[in-house]
Amino acid sequence: LTALFIAFGVVFVAEFGDKSQLLTLTLATKYRALPVLIAITAATMVLQALSVGVGGALGASLPATFINSLAAVAFLGFAIWTLVDSDDEDDVETSPTFTPRRVIVSVASMFFLAELGDKTMLSSMTLATDRNLFGTWLGATLGMVAADGLALLLGKYLGDRIPRRAIRYGSAAVFFVFAVLMLFDVLR
Known about the structure:
By secondary structure, this protein is mostly helical. It is built from nine helices and no strands. The chain starts with a helix and ends with a helix.
């Protein structure tokens, strides 16, 4: 239980203001809450298992520049996809291309890439070196889902009050900024 509580606290605090929390907030303005919550929970469970179980070995063998380059390209793609997606006038949830499964897969993929090598992943990896692995995994997973759940609630609140066009341009800008920041990190 000690590992669970410590991991929950550390990851919950580390997640505030993190790019994946901002990503969750942005996606919550466009999609229903339940598919987004399922996606971030599934991605978090896998990420935390990776970081707790084999994260140390993987982090040592894969260069951070490779991971950040992959994530930067993905976020640039998300920015372009968001700009090209012209569902301003239609409700996303009633469009024929909307399916909860598609949202879950897309959101989980974005969330997974946003978190690779991030401070929350590194925090749980560090905690797992001298604490119970299962407790660390569970605490880190619950901490991240709790923090991102708050962003989800805020995103739903904002999504009901901001025009779709503004959300689309704002989302594209957020994805583009993440891509640029990751590219700068790769280049330095």
